[in-house]
Amino acid sequence: MSGPRVNSFFLGNSSGVNFSIILSSLDEETGKLQLANCNGIKRAGDWHLTVTPGMNASKVTVSLTRTLQLCLPNGTDCCTTPLCVVETLQVLACRDSVMLAHLLIQAEIYANSSFTGNVSENATVIPNQAFQPLGSCPCDLTAAACDVRCCCDPECTPDLKQLFNKSCFTGVFGGDVNPPFDQLCSSQSMEYIPDWFPFLCVQSSLNNTPFLGYFYHGSISTPGVPPFKIALQTSPGRIFTGYRQGDPIMTEENEYFTIPQQSVAGQCVENAPVAYLQNFDVKCLTNLASYKEGLPRDVRINTGAGDFIQQNVIYRTITDTGKFITENENLHAAEVLCQNVTFAEHYMFLWKDKNIEQINVTVFLGSLCDGETLAQRFTVTFQSLKSTNATELFENPGYQVGKPVKAANMNASDTSGSLNIWQPAGRGLCTLASSTPVLFGLDSFSGCVLEVGINEDCSLLRGNVTEKLNSLIQATHVGKRSNSSYSDLNDWVEIIRLDPFNSDTVVSSGNLRGICRDIPANLNIRIIYADVGAVQGIPWQEVLAVQISYSTIIWQFQCGLICENSTSFFPITASVQFIEVPAQPPVPMTRFQINYTEFDCNRNDVCWPELFYPLTRFYTGEPYSQCLAKGLLLAFLVLLAAMMSNPWFSKLWNSSLV
């Protein structure tokens, strides 16, 4: 054993069994352990034996009762050497003087390296680090031992220092805690000393070194996981002055009001804050084992004006669970465990200006059994109290983040169009993938895969991929605003299409099978928008232009050892990028304001760093002494002109002439 405690087990019935411990020693003549008998007790020297009886086994614990601390000067009851305990123990189990079991323990225990003893009253006075260094030898890290390459370590003897005398630590870490600084007149550390250095250098002792100014008064803070809280405002008056679009909704406990939502990766986040004036409709998969309840229904919400309102909750029961149960394992009815859980939650926030006036919550409950997968649904809808139409949530005609982009097909009799991206399902095949509308302000990236054979015709493949990508854009125009009228063409912007290469102009790849050039594998949708104003503090955002382009690649069939009669997966993707630009073009900068790179005289028309270039040593047109003399003369003339332009100089000159 190497620690102060060891455990073992005695198997069998321990009733009537006497356990004892014996501190054994070697026989000087034979060199063997002395024979043990059953007359021992449960304590031997510094060792103690405890037995915890059980049904068919008893736990036997041998523990050391002495301290394992190294001795301090004049210390007692401690370890004098690092190897503190070297002893041999025997644990016996006897019944009626008959030995039933025998356990031999060899103990080699080292002293603890940490100090837990009493601190002497003669405490070391630590100097103030703001005025003098804390230690004269920072590289002395090991007590009572010589640190290699630390020449200031007092434990290092001259013989040891000879081993690393030429490799000592330098600088402050090596003991030079007061190095000469560059401002000293006697300092020669600077490679280039300017001519004015003797006029501005410092005559000071090393005890007044500027390195002491690097001392930092730190503070210790307790680490912890920050909750969804914000700091309370201590100023009098109302806590909030109203919500703005995108602000998290707060509760009475000054925490975020959270509802499960989908992340960018598609997974559900349980404690996701609800943002003001941002609707969402999500579904989260769960089962009976991982089901968790959300926030309590009695949580009061901060209206934004400093007061709080209660949620109006209505409970309903789901009778048809087929719309929510997506997977059902066939289990025997006798072993199925069911529980009443929440199937859906619908939140309706009634708002006015920057405040929340009312919250209506509809909760749908149902029975979820073990082995079933539930698709929970959570919806949040914001409705203005000034709106007469329940479907029109905002009076702001501009787009709101998270709302679908409005599209139209002006070349068809039915002008309603669509601007979509893929929503893959199952294996991710394009034949099984559905589509979802492009949401304003949210950059997206989605895709699906096509099954392609090695003998695929390049022209057919190129046409098939182009058709799949074009199926996402069933529109010729995009609405500038969310309420753009189909009858007014000025409310729409035409989609700029940069079509892929025509199949007639594609360079042939020869007779190579499984290789096709210029395949449009990615559809790029770029939407340029701007903030053109605000309605009740909510930004009014309009679409200015829409561009659609294609990224082409060289497709090559991927296969293993055998390529015949096999198919490969070809991924095609669609990306959406929203680019914000100023509503009005900025005023162009003059050539004096343009600054490509700081102090870049090669690109800027005006180079301020070269204003005093003739006075520097880099100027070689004239001797440096002449440049310096002319510079001093110029400075004198400027100073003289400034003095003569002062009114008091005129009075002094006139008085001298009188």
TrEMBL record:
Residues 112-221 form the Tectonic-1-3 N-terminal domain. The keyword Glycoprotein applies. The keyword Manganese does not apply. Residues 242-383, 398-581 form the Tectonic-1-3 domain. InterPro entries: TCTN1-3, TCTN1-3_dom, TCTN1-3_N. One of its GO terms (biological process) is protein localization to ciliary transition zone. Keywords: Cilium biogenesis/degradation, Glycoprotein, Signal. GO terms for cellular component: MKS complex. Part of the tectonic-like complex (also named B9 complex). Belongs to the tectonic family. This is TECT2 protein. The gene is Tctn2.
